[in-house]
Design a protein that fits this description.
Blueprint (H helix, E strand, L loop, with lengths): L3 H10 L4 H11 L6 H9 L3 E5 L3 H7 L1 E2 L3 E2 L10 H9 L5 E6 L3 H12 L3 E7 H6 L4 E2 L3
Helix pairs in contact: 1-2
Length: 139
Amino acid sequence: MPGCWFVFCALSRLKPSRKTLDFLQKFCSLTLMDPKKAFELFQQGKAVLVDVREQEELEEGGMVEGALWMPTSKMDEDNAEWVAFQKSLPKDKAVVFYCRSGNRSGRVAYFFQENGYDSHNMGGFCDWLAAGLPKRSFP
């Protein structure tokens, strides 16, 4: 993940806890899935695509055709909608997250990976568009 090595090195000098360093190492080990690869897996029924951007962002630029939507602002264990969404995701398919730039989707992908999902970070919606892949208007 871009910038992770710099953050990791900077934090090393500050003497962070072992838990913090372990988290960063795991989080930074997530690799970005190429949008075309994500689309291919999705078309084959081997992946689910999830947009984690906020509603305003989707209203401005649309979203991936066929993607599910769960904004990061709703991702809270006390939110029944979030709990139901989490339980609805398959553990036998790749779950590919994306946001605007890849930051939020990376954190969400890491969370799901730690909870037994085959999760991936596709990066940003702009990468999807740059690859010439289909989008739709929101809602």
